[in-house]
């Protein structure tokens, strides 16, 4: 089967096409024919070598964690899905930049035929991250004030919509060119982080969702706007520059895990037109297509998600 692999750390040019063996199935695994995957910032950090100590990989390595495809085979102890099911899912070990991937059945959710992989694949990872951050970790309540950083990004644009659905007052940060996009998602306030310091222009909030890698500058200013007893949720790392206990602040590092209830809620919200995954751009499943997707994501400024498509069905 065809796969896009990396044989060394480096820039996007290390991503190369290679023929590899189709993965063998364990008893609880499912073989999925890939239709769509995403460009994930974690993949970029692994590829560049930034995570080489925390998450070392063996070369050649196949990146890709979010899955959208059709079940081809199932292990003998699989009971949750069957061949022909259209599924989304998440692989902690990568492997989605390939024609087929083997993944545990509990890491998959079946999607209805009325939804496309373009609408749903992002729910498997970034959507679930947003959902668990707000509802499992943050336990947000109607009427609470929430600050969501990078409100136009893959996680951020879904978090803005989910928080608004739940009755929160949402403040989001975004760059100049994305302000109207984030307002259109329902944010009550949108702050241009390139033009002003959010900590100087906004009222205190009950919860902060932070996914900005800037050496802790956003973290520091986020604590300045958090109410005593509030919650700081980070997708990057636990806050280490502050002692949140002094102010009763919960300091939580969000790491999504497979969650059937979360996936069901997200899929239902898309079906009911309450949640929309915005696809900024599709890229072909070729070495150059995947590399260009990585370069585009690294350049910043995207609205929503970037997807890689096998073009097995119209618009994936």
Automatic annotation (TrEMBL):
Q: Which InterPro entries match?
A: ADH-like_N, Chloroplast_QOR, ER, GroES-like_sf, NAD(P)-bd_dom_sf
What domain of life? Answer: Bacteria
- From the Swiss-Prot or TrEMBL record, what is one GO molecular function term? oxidoreductase activity
Question: Which Pfam families does the record match to this protein?
Answer: ADH_N, ADH_zinc_N_2
Q: What residue stretches are annotated with the Enoyl reductase (ER) domain?
A: 10-308
Looking up Gene3D superfamilies in the UniProt record yields:
Medium-chain alcohol dehydrogenases, catalytic domain, NAD(P)-binding Rossmann-like Domain
Protein name listed in UniProt: NADPH:quinone reductase
Q: Which organism is it from?
A: Paenibacillus typhae
